[in-house]
Amino acid sequence: MSVVVNRKGRRARLVQVALLALGAGLLPLGHLPALAQSSGLVLRIGYQKSASLLALQKSQGTLEKRLAPLGAAVQWVEFPAGPQLLEGLNVGSVDVGFVGEAPPIFAQAAGANFVYIGNDPAAPEAEAIVVPKDSAIRSVAELRGKKVALNKGSNVHYLLVKSLEKAGLKYTDVQPVFLPPADARAAFERGAVDAWVIWDPFLAAVEKQTGARILADGRGVVNNYAYYLAERGYAERHPQVIRALFEDTLDRGRWLKGNLKQAAALIAPLQGLDVSVVELSLQRYQFGVVPLTPAVAAEQQKIADAFAELKLIPRPIKIADAVLPWRVARAD
Q1: pLDDT score recorded for residue 327
Q2: Is residue 129 over pLDDT 50?
Q3: Cα–Cα distance measured from residue 8 to residue 39, given in angstroms and rounded to the nearest whole number
Q4: Residue 139 has pLDDT above 70, yes or no
Q5: Which residue of 75, 81, 86, 90 has the fewest C-beta atoms within 10 A of its own C-beta?
Q6: Is residue 148 a contact partner of residue 193, using CB atoms and an 8 Å limit?
Q7: Beta strand pairing status for 41-48 and 72-79?
């Protein structure tokens, strides 16, 4: 027993010394994860390159610094899109993930084990239906019978459903072509599809680089919330880690919105995009994670009910079953 206590004491002193050295500029950030790993606590974050704020946090190492006093390390795991990220969360390769509205609904319907822990504010302008600049299509109603590319199970799936409904069409009135963003962009440019439903920064990129026209974005149609999800057991065991994640996200989000040009310059090379593309994308996103509220959960339930009615998911689900009955982070 005395050996364990001594080890804990030495570990605590190591972390304290590391933090003092960091504050004095004597120790680079890269040393902190190695020290934190000695506790065995790791936060594995599933993210997409398109998630600009997380990309910024990863590049600046701010989360690693914030978690070091807790003895926790950070591991970043990149996924091409939300559905794949949810698969990773379900099989235990990540502890926390950040996705749009639809992926968690498809995952919950398939029996995935996760919980909602927070959401960013609505960003309806950050997703849209686009057509080539010289397309004869001028309205959503003119998509009847057309091929529409989208990433199956992503947030834009619901945007397409509701936009068609608003235009007096049914989901079955179009020909969905399920493609991940890179393949959809290629199909869009060569004319293999008539329209593309996509989110930022891919949306901003196709606008800036090809002159694609927006037929409709989410305004007046969908909220386009983004959600933070966690493996249930991890969230229950380590609320202090989730709280630190939220605090860092809030801090970096405020900095980003107050320094758009500088933030875009930092994020652009990480996403392989022009600075102007990233800046346009950042203007349309909102940052400010808060714990999930009953009102937001009710909005998510509406999407789940719509997908169940359209037989897009195998069974109806209750969003409340995937929401923790307690808060793991402050709303401020």
Answers
A1: 53
A2: yes
A3: 9
A4: yes
A5: 75
A6: yes
A7: parallel
Strands (E), 80-237: 96-99, 115-120, 127-131, 147-150, 175-178, 195-199, 213-217, 226-230
Q: How far apart are CA 301 and CA 318, in angstroms?
A: 7
Q: Which of 194, 217, 240 is where one domain is finished?
A: 217
What's the pLDDT tens digit per position in 161-205? 999 999 999 999 999 999 999 999 999 999 999 999 999 999 999
DSSP string, 287-299: ---BPPPHHHHHH
Tell me the two tokens of residue 72: 């926790």
Provide the CATH number for the domain around residue 141: 3.40.190.10
Residue 184 lies in a domain: yes
Q: Which residue has the higher pLDDT, 92 or 14?
A: 92
Residue 34 lies in a domain: no
Q: Is 321 exposed, middle or buried (0-12, 13-18, 19+ CB in 10 A)?
A: exposed
